[in-house]
Amino acid sequence: MLVCDVDVLRTMISGWQDDPDAAGRSRTTALAMISAYLDTGHDVVLPQLVARDDQLARFRAAAEAAGAEHVHVLLVADPDTVVRRFRRRADLPLGAWNQHATAFWEAEGGDDALREWARRLDRMNAIRVPSTDPDATYRRLLDALGQA
Q1: Helices 111-120 and 96-108, interaxial angle, to 10°?
Q2: Is-above-0.85 flag for pTM?
Q3: Of 56, 81, 98, 133, which residue is the least packed, with the fewest Cβ within 10 Å?
Q4: What is the pLDDT along the chain (148 residues), one digit of tens a residue?
Q5: Distance from C-alpha of 35 to C-alpha of 99, rounded to nearest angstrom
Q6: Cβ neighbours, 10 Å, residue 35
Q7: Residue 75 β-bridge partners
Q8: Among the listed residues 125, 12, 2, 120, the one whose alpha carbon sits nearest the alpha carbon of residue 60
């Protein structure tokens, strides 16, 4: 299985912090990787929030072109939990992307902006999996995938 993290790919693009097109190019790169990997007959996990319908359609089309099934799963938690988890992740030594994301959300309005974004996700068409502790979330994810 390939776990294709678009945010990690983005940080591999020279000058990505100041390049508004880096996000699009990293998704295009991810699509190429995903398509090639699916063609080997193996699964791909994309741990990425793809909230725009046009972008989601690109990933769905890549799966369909490879004869693979596309399953859109959204791990969900209440807005305060989302903020708390985001803040904890910002303290982890995961590199440039966490620093960039933290600065982005601070500029957008901090915790209030994160809470509003979490509420907006309620409109997404996806299989929803409540995200509590890792073991329970994983069991719920497996159950949801079995129903997809």
Answers
A1: 90
A2: no
A3: 133
A4: 999 999 889 999 999 989 989 988 999 999 999 999 999 999 999 998 888 889 899 999 999 999 999 999 999 999 999 999 988 887 776 677 888 888 899 999 999 999 998 888 888 889 999 999 999 999 999 999 887 5
A5: 30
A6: 17
A7: 129
A8: 125
